[in-house]
């Protein structure tokens, strides 16, 4: 047998694009536009050297996320876990990392808590919290204020602690820990320490509620699900951790980015001030425009499935590029422009798509509408206190945003 | 226009309620979609089509 001539080693697939184009912190990686036309499903290599598919076209992404043959179960072979941050390694997976029927069973235990009408009923309370934080900010006029620390983070933090029933005395601890989790100026050890401390805090919180369940999400989960034996103590803790983290980082970063966008786009800001009714649509457009989930969601194919003419084989992983879908010119005209009156802005997939679509989206919407409306009204002169290229953007994180946002007015 | 729902698939994200509150509601116990009007008047048709288009779980079927 003659040895065949050595074929050149196949070039390793490129890494997942993460860097925004030079000088434009709001745009997704420029590579996405090329991939959408040339290779809408292409192989990428993840940080651990494994390969996965990267989907960049809106239609393919909706098809993948809408098809339960693409599994969300992170323990499945082929699931592209590598390079993910944000609690992927917790001992308890939480229902976002599960498939039906388990996912359906667990998710339905909390769906009513985030219904549109229940969330709308919270609007006055969210407005009150926002006004208080703005009052405190007003007192600091003339100094540089970090908008992330003063407003963007505390709003979702206070709202979620209200929903979970975190006792008022624990607020400071709770906010300090979540603040540490979100900060960039802390070391890896400090962040892991905060994660651990938060986990043990949630264990204690759930135990206290087992003794005296209150009128809040955790209390209801305990009396209605844990007591009859549908779920365990650890499941309740996992619910708390999931709702806490999912509802926090995302909303906080959207608030920061949205505020910065409107500080830089005076014309749009003036228009929204003059016509507050446009704020609802503006929030959808900001969600589309910023698409803060930068390297996910992710799935594992459980069978051979053809998507957009490409065969994805059982056991292969898929990374879905939400920012790319939301800038797809096939769906959104002039996609790189921010147009707060865009008629189909709500077709964005910033909250995902399919059965895993964000459970807390109604709450996120109300928080964003209230905070943006209040900022425009109360701080019309607000502007960044540093040049934009000095703002630390979270290009290194799974959820995009700014680590800090110094402002003045 | 005639609307049918496959409510078993509903994931209670509430998009339909935001877009067409006169046609869709959510059940108090679990947030699952409820149809208020299976044959809504013409001024609701655009909103219903929009709800069907953005429903993440393909629950809403519209026959024109
Ligand atoms: S949009 Fe679809 S999934 Fe969401 S509540 Fe309405 S019917 Fe259910």
Layout of helices and strands:
The complex is a heterodimer of chains A (409) and B (64).
Chain A: H1 31-38, E1 41-45, E2 51-55, H2 58-65, E3 70-71, H3 102-108, H4 116-121, H5 123-138, E4 145-146, H6 147-152, H7 154-164, H8 171-182, H9 188-211, H10 217-226, H11 233-246, H12 249-264, H13 266-274, H14 279-290, E5 298-301, E6 305-307, E7 310-312, E8 317-320, H15 322-325, H16 361-378, E9 383-384, E10 406-408
Parallel strand pairs in A: 2-8
Antiparallel strand pairs in A: 1-2, 3-5, 4-10, 5-8, 6-7, 9-10
Helix pairs in contact in A: 5-7, 5-16, 7-8, 8-9, 9-11, 10-11, 12-16, 14-16
Chain B: E1 2-5, H1 15-19, E2 24-26, E3 33-35, H2 45-54, E4 60-63
Antiparallel strand pairs in B: 1-4, 2-3
The complex binds iron/sulfur cluster.
Iron/sulfur cluster (SF4) binds next to helix 1 of chain B.
Please supply descriptive tags for the structure shown above.
heterodimer, A: 409 residues, alpha+beta, five-stranded mixed beta sheet, three-stranded antiparallel beta sheet, 16 helices, 8% strand, globular, B: 64 residues, two-stranded antiparallel ribbon, two-stranded antiparallel sheet, 4 strands, binds iron/sulfur cluster
Give a nutshell description of this structure.
Chain A is α+β, with helices and mostly antiparallel strands and 409 residues long.
Characterization of this structure:
The complex is a heterodimer of chains A (409) and B (64). Chain A has 16 helices and 10 strands. Chain A has helices at residues 31-38, 58-65, 102-108, 116-121, 123-138, 147-152, 154-164, 171-182, 188-211, 217-226, 233-246, 249-264, 266-274, 279-290, 322-325, 361-378, and strands at 41-45, 51-55, 70-71, 145-146, 298-301, 305-307, 310-312, 317-320, 383-384, 406-408. In chain A, strands 1-2-8-5-3 form a 5-stranded mixed sheet. Chain A has a 3-stranded antiparallel sheet with strand order 4-10-9. A two-stranded antiparallel ribbon of chain A has the order 6-7. In chain A, a hairpin with a 2-residue loop joins strand 6 and strand 7 (310-312). Chain B contains 2 helices and 4 strands. Chain B has helices at residues 15-19, 45-54; strands spanning 2-5, 24-26, 33-35, 60-63. In chain B, strand 2 and strand 3 form a beta hairpin. The longest helix of chain B has 10 residues, at 45-54. The chains are: A alpha+beta (409), B alpha+beta (64). The A-B interface holds A 65-66, 107-108, 111-112, 114-117, 346-347, 351-359, 361-362, 365 and B 9, 11-15, 17-19, 26-32, 50, 53-54, 56-58. Iron/sulfur cluster binds at residues 10-16, 24, 33, 55-57, 59-60 of chain B.
